[in-house]
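Extended Data, panel c. Modelled sequence:
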Amino acid sequence: MRAKMRLLGFNAEAVKPLNEEAAADLGAELLGEATIFLLACGCIVLEYWRQRAQQRRREQQQRDAWGEMRDEVERLGLALEALQAQVQAAPQQSALDELRAEIQDLRAHIRRQDKPKEPRA
């Protein structure tokens, strides 16, 4: 009874003694309520830990997904740069091929003109 009175905030010195049966009932009730309170607190703490762990897993999965997307974007950026370099090099290569063909035509034309003309009979 003194413990109950202290928990309720009353002066516990002015409590008259209880008989044995009433004291056992109050002690059992106090013990039962304390057990239920502790179990409820334990469940709340366990649920909090479970939620935090689940949230950490979700955040880690999001970070992993962002990392994979960032890597994919970087890989695609490098592929794009390589393709742009190929596209820019392709017209230059074809222009070089055209110039080489023109040079060969000019050489052939010059050779034809440089051949000595055979005298007519």
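The two ends are 150 Å apart (CA to CA). This feature is highlighted in the accompanying rendering.
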